[in-house]
Design goal:
33% of the residues lie in helices and 29% in strands. The strands form two sheets. A six-stranded mixed sheet has the order 6-7-8-3-9-10, sandwiched between helices. A four-stranded antiparallel sheet has the order 2-1-4-5. Helix 3 packs across helix 4 and helix 3 runs parallel beside helix 5.
């Protein structure tokens, strides 16, 4: 699904180039649940932004669903992003002036989906995430856990092939964070590929595989052991 070869990202400074990522080689298969870990400032979120096509100032080769992203025009990358990728962030990024229902409708409106079909899709996801009773509330009327639940619902409403999650439980209580991870595991079991950035070993254990990044270098790549009992 994803193949990165020789990915590098740097900034020009007075002293020369400062590298954020160095020679990243990484393959991610469809249906995987991958965790990216490492110390603060290691380049984890930068790598996630590149994979999500939110960052275009990098070098190397990036293939996504057999498309050569490194050769694509910016507007074509945006279309690829909208068609296949959903995002979940630590800060939720819900629109405060819109209700839960309207926040869920926003990503569908960008895809030129007919109004009637959009209403059906929003109704389905409200029911699936058990937030029908919250549909007319605004984000500031929800708890942190409820806001993140809505953020995940918004990320999956258009049935993306890939979900990118950047510290998705960073602002949540332990029980709320566990609920979000269980939700990710269910989505992954249904076929959605998930890549998360986290500092949490408990969250990392929810996935299949962990890669560690230190000072911009990919240091190791290990499978998560599974309970065989």
């Amino acid at each position: 699904m994803i193949e990165l070869r020789g990915i590098e990202k740097s900034y020009d400074t007075g002293a020369g180039k400062t590298f954020v990522l160095r020679r990243i080689n990484l393959t991610i298969k469809e249906g995987e649940f991958l965790t990216i870990m490492g110390p603060s400032g290691a380049g984890k979120s930068t790598l996630l932004s590149i994979i999500g096509m939110l960052d275009s100032s990098w070098s190397g080769e990036f293939n996504f669903l057999n498309e050569q992203v490194h050769k694509m025009k910016p507007r074509d990358r945006v279309e690829l992003n909208k068609r296949y990728i959903g995002f979940v962030f630590q800060q939720y990024h819900l629109l405060d002036s819109l209700t839960v229902y309207e926040n869920l409708d926003i990503p569908l409106s960008y895809r030129n989906i007919p109004r009637g079909e959009r209403q059906s899709m929003v109704a389905d996801v409200l029911d699936r995430f058990q937030i029908v009773g919250k549909k007319d509330l605004y984000p500031n009327q929800l708890s942190g856990g409820q806001q993140q639940l809505v953020a995940v619902a918004r990320a999956v409403i258009a049935h993306p092939k890939l979900i990118l999650a950047d510290e998705p439980t960073g602002n949540l209580h332990t029980s709320q964070g566990k609920e979000i991870m269980q939700l990710f595991q269910r989505l992954n079991a249904e076929g959605t590929t998930i890549i998360q950035v986290t500092h949490s070993e408990a969250n990392a254990a929810a996935g299949h595989r962990i890669v560690n990044i230190v000072d911009g270098w990919l240091k190791d790549d290990v499978q998560v052991p599974r309970d065989q009992s």
